[in-house]
Specification:
The complex is a heterodimer of chains A (398) and B (288).
Chain A: H1 2-23, E1 27-34, H2 41-60, E2 64-66, E3 69-79, H3 84-96, E4 102-104, H4 108-122, E5 126-128, H5 134-137, E6 144-149, H6 152-165, E7 171-177, H7 180-195, E8 199-206, H8 214-222, E9 227-231, H9 234-246, E10 253-257, H10 263-269, E11 276-279, H11 297-308, H12 314-333, H13 338-347, E12 350-352, E13 355-357, E14 364-365, E15 372-376, E16 379-384
Parallel strand pairs in A: 1-3, 1-4, 4-5, 5-6, 6-14, 7-8, 7-9, 9-10, 10-11
Antiparallel strand pairs in A: 2-3, 11-15, 12-13, 15-16
Chain B: H1 2-31, H2 38-56, H3 60-81, H4 91-113, E1 128-131, E2 134-137, H5 138-160, H6 162-172, H7 174-179, H8 184-206, H9 217-231, H10 236-257, H11 262-276
Helix pairs in contact in B: 1-5, 1-8, 1-9, 1-10, 2-3, 2-4, 2-8, 2-9, 3-5, 3-8, 5-6, 5-8, 6-8, 9-10, 10-11
Keywords (chain A): Amino-acid transport, Signal, Transport
Family (chain A): Belongs to the leucine-binding protein family.
Pfam family, one (chain A): Peripla_BP_6
Chain lengths: 398, 288
């Protein structure tokens, strides 16, 4: 019994010491589950670059302004090996062991949806860098906020463009990676196409990890589509574009998401990139002025290039975007209190280099129009919306 | 015509699968090691071909044997200095060792080459053989042909050279081979080196066809595994036939069940094969 009382006293002392340490904190602790290894490591690396740039800039400026103090940003990463169950464990560890104040999401819709349940249970606001599927946000959670607009903001303007430029086009073929985000995106394209009177003559899914797409593309070719839409990630879309050319798949418009927005995709497919359309939540041509640590999109791009030697793509930009949104919410709240910060996040109205960010009732950004892009003469051009377009939409494939 | 094109697609990818699997089969058959490192070695061969093409403009199909030769030396050294120490240990130990080496190589490549996807972009593009309603990508034909030449050379080496017979002898009965004067340690090292040669060559052949990235290694390893089980462990003709069989089955699986289930048919047939013929199509213990 004596021992038990002693143990309890020792435990209380340790807890008290912990509280003292917590009260005297001089940093904002943010947890970020990252896919550093495994299939998503390219995306994980990009995301980390975005986080790091933001952290570097904030800390160089003295830190996040919380009331009358400035707190440094302390980012905690753990690798979840591109495995969603591990992402959940990492989120739990960040909350219970690292005692983070806030969370950034894992990469992609699937892992974000899974990890958001952990954040919700613990009441930790989580800013999602890379989730755009409504299915992630319709769970009634109060702690999840995503900086991407939903997938229909890609499919609607693209369907409009194809309809306007190719009035005779009727037949649409859709090939989707059987994964939460690419499939949700494909479903949005199907809806947008049908809404405009297109016939969806082919809609098939391919398994995650598919090495060869010849059979699917042979069937797609047989459907004689005018407009082809394929969803997936860079490696899938490099192979799909190449094999479509190998199999002489025709068509007047070819939309691939997400891939062509990345320079590595363009380099990998070479001339086959011509006239491929895509969409993206951010592109270095964006010209937003902002109230964040970067000051404007152009300045963000400049700093990114100086640090990493290349232009940022949307994943890299989203890594910094979640940072600036959280920072502005904390600074407005003047506190690290999660309830106050959550309330500021809900209010929205953040002027960021990524675009103006506010969230809908379910927590997904609904405040900007992502650009529609097309590869023309080896360069990425914005073809919609008209206000920021750098070129006009071209039809046909090379 | 659709069926014919699907068959051609299957054969075209089947040739690549055969290249992927042969080295894995040899190492498994002779050394009794499931070489988890195999997929990463294929990726490394891809990177060698990528840089050889980028800096010296060497065509990857011609570079393949050279990529294999460079990696052969590394493979012999790796086996002799590292893996040989655990050859007499239980199966699980060698599996763990190659698993660890695989993590090391994958992450080294991530650090060195980054995770960005790259691809050899041939200029002019190899194009396609257009046979009316059937089209066949030329690069796959070239890769398959070079792969089959290398595989045939390996088969001839095993069949007709003294060293090849030593490898087969060690595989059949290590102790008896040692009694007859075969240097078992050295034989293991060279056999592993030959497996690495085939992996490196395959990587170079694939570099113009599939994106290259350290994260692609697991996909190649799983294909090699399935092909070896279909074709028969340690059998070189088995790996070739297994490769073509898997290519065609996957292709028709995608046609009949939808692309989403391309692998379903292949795995159902694999399970059936394991039930009725566990040694694979051409597997016969002790023969190459």
């Amino acid at each position: 019994m004596k021992l038990t009382v002693r143990s309890a006293l020792a435990g209380l002392m340790i807890m008290a010491a912990g509280n003292v340490a917590a009260n005297a904190k001089d940093s904002v602790v943010i947890g970020a589950p990252l896919p550093v290894t495994g299939a998503l490591s390219p995306e994980g690396t990009k995301l980390r670059q975005g986080y790091e740039l933001w952290r570097e800039q904030v800390n160089a400026a003295g830190g996040v302004k919380v009331g009358d103090r400035r707190l440094k940003v302390d980012l905690r990463y753990y690798d979840y090996q591109s495995q969603t169950p591990r992402a959940i464990q990492v989120a739990e560890k960040l909350i219970t062991d690292d005692k983070v104040d806030f969370l950034f999401s894992p990469f992609g819709s699937g892992a974000t949806k899974a990890a958001s349940a952990v954040a919700e249970k613990a009441g930790v606001p989580m800013i999602a860098s890379s989730a755009s599927s409504k299915e992630v946000f319709d769970q009634g959670y109060k702690n999840l906020f995503g900086v991407y607009t939903d997938n229909s903001t890609f499919s609607e303007p693209l369907a409009d463009l194809v309809k306007a430029k190719l009035p005779n086009a009727r037949r649409v073929a859709i090939l989707a990676r059987n994964d939460l985000y690419p499939l949700s995106l494909a479903n949005e394209f199907e809806k947008s196409a049908k809404k405009r009177g297109f016939d969806v003559v082919f809609f098939e899914k391919y398994a995650i990890g598919t090495l060869d797409h010849a059979s699917a593309l042979t069937q797609l070719r047989a459907a004689k589509p005018d407009w082809i839409v394929a969803t997936g990630y860079i490696n899938d879309l490099i192979t799909i574009r190449k094999q479509a050319a190998d199999l002489k798949v025709g068509g007047e418009a070819f939309t691939l998401i997400n891939g062509p927005a990345y320079q590595e995709w363009i380099s990998a497919v070479g001339p086959l990139a011509e006239n491929v359309t895509t969409a993206s939540w951010f592109h270095p041509v964006a010209r937003y002025s902002s109230d964040d640590v970067f000051g404007s999109s152009a300045k963000f791009v400049e700093l990114f290039k100086a640090k990493y030697g290349s232009e940022p793509d949307f994943t890299q930009a989203s890594g910094s975007a979640v940072g600036v949104v959280l920072q502005q919410a904390i600074e407005r709240a003047g506190s690290l209190d999660r309830d106050k910060v959550r309330a500021e996040l809900k209010k929205g109205g953040f002027k960021t280099f990524f675009g103006p960010i506010s969230f809908s009732d379910i927590g997904i950004a609904d405040s900007y129009v992502p650009p529609v892009l097309q590869i023309q003469d080896g360069k990425v051009q914005v073809v919609a919306p008209a206000e920021i377009a750098t070129s006009t939409f071209r039809t046909g494939l090379k | 015509m659709l069926w014919l094109q699907v068959l051609v697609n299957g054969l075209a990818v089947g040739g690549l699968y055969a290249c992927i699997a042969v080295g894995f089969s040899l190492v498994w058959g002779v050394l009794n090691i499931i070489n988890i490192l195999h997929g990463s070695l294929i990726v490394l061969g891809g990177y060698l071909a990528f840089f050889a093409h980028q800096y010296w403009g060497i065509n990857p199909f011609l570079f393949a044997p050279l990529a294999g030769a460079v990696m052969f030396a590394g493979g012999v050294a790796l086996q002799y200095c590292v893996i040989n120490h655990v050859m007499a240990r239980p199966f699980l130990i060698t599996l763990l060792l190659t698993f660890g080496l695989n993590l090391f190589l994958d992450n080294s490549m991530l650090a060195l080459f980054s995770a960005d996807y790259r691809k050899v972009l041939l200029n002019p593009a190899p194009g396609v053989f257009d046979l009316g309603s059937i089209v066949v990508p030329a690069d796959r034909i070239y890769a398959t042909l070079v792969g089959l030449v290398l595989i045939s050379a390996l088969a001839l080496l095993l069949r007709f050279t003294q060293f090849g017979r030593a490898i087969i002898a060690v595989r059949m009965d290590r102790d008896a081979a040692a009694l007859l004067g075969v240097n078992v340690r050295w034989t293991y090292a060279v056999a592993f080196g030959l497996g690495v040669f085939m992996a490196g060559s395959a990587g170079a052949l694939l570099s113009a066809i599939f994106p290259i990235s350290p994260v692609a290694s697991a996909g190649y390893l799983s294909k090699a595994f399935v092909i070896c089980v279909i074709g028969g462990l340690g059998s070189i003709p088995g790996a070739v036939i297994g490769g073509f069989a898997l290519g065609v089955i996957e292709s028709f699986g995608a046609l009949l069940l939808g692309p989403e289930h391309a692998l379903t048919l292949a795995f159902v047939l694999l399970i059936a094969l394991l039930a009725v013929r566990p040694s694979g199509l051409l597997g016969r213990q002790g023969f190459a």
